[in-house]
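Final report, results section. Input specification for complex C-07:
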Amino acid sequence: MSLVNSVPEMVLTTKVDQLLNWTRKSSLWYMLFGLACCAIELMQTGGPRADLDRFGMAPRATPRTSDLMIVAGTLTLKMALRTKLLYEQMPEPKYVVSMGSCSNCGGLFQLAYSVCDGVDKVIPVDVYVPGCPPRPEALTDGLILLQKKMSEEKWLVRPSAEEAALLS
Amino acid sequence: MAGAAECGGGSVALVELSRVERDMEIAAIRRLLHDKLGAAVGVVEEGPHYESIRIDDDAVERAAMLLRDTPELRFDCLSNLSGCDYPGRGAIDIVYDLYSYEFDRSLVLRVSTRRGDPLVDSVERVWPAANWLEREVFDLLGVRFRGHSDLRRILLPEDWVGHPLRKDYVEPEQYHGISTVRESMLGIRSGS
Ligand code: SF4
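Structure output:
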């Protein structure tokens, strides 16, 4: 039996939601997605000093087992189409962190003919991390922010797809 | 140890040789080419940073062969191949940067082609490195290379329209539904 919409909200669900969110936010698997220089800092963040593993985060080589896409680097128009495709291949619930000026707004290269100025032109973004490149501390801060966002979500009581469509 | 000493001796001899050979001025190289290719070899042009030899667009491959295979020249390395658009004189120039490992010297060749129908001999058969470099010039400037084995875009997506390093390139408003109108924080609008 599915738990969705079957538990009385006032009594239980906030706690169950909390538990679910706690498990979700503590095992964020992120897709390896380095596009330019920012990827070096992303690797540093996964390395032993900043150590993303302590949040239960692990790099994945495929979108199909990833919860999180960290867009790290300059997004060209050519890559933008592929980014969208990869995002669509990730299972729900999925999150996107835009890392660095380039993926936030095109950065240094925003006027170049081949550059997409901002990854939010193709996929929805949850957290923007400023910097060129952001230091591992900054990216970690962004990820903690994302965890905070995740822990406030409700998963057991939520509108069905049709209701959501009506609401929006 | 003995091996290292021999190596050292060898390289000293090479340096001596190259000093003699380095005296071969660009004018002498031009004369050598001119003797073989005739009117297809143009003048030596002074640039702000280097001198270059001008070659006709349909003699490039023969000139390249000569430069690579003549024992006194041996330009065995194509360090770079680039293009530049000159709408003022209706031409696109292709610039070849050559280097000879044996004699430690460089040479610049310059080829002009008509802007309306740019077509130049490919030098891929002389220096295989030209394959990607020519594809890049084709991608960004639209110059076609006669005899190239695989002339496709190399950097931009295959369905890209136009050649962005042409001075008169107009950026389309969108690419597959992604708007390319960029509002810069400096108030500059690209694509116009
Ligand atoms: S934001 Fe800076 S460091 Fe990051 S990809 Fe762009 S240019 Fe490189």
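Residues 65 and 94 of chain A are 10 Å apart (CA to CA). The first strand of chain A starts at residue 29 and ends at 31. This concludes the modelling results for the funded period.
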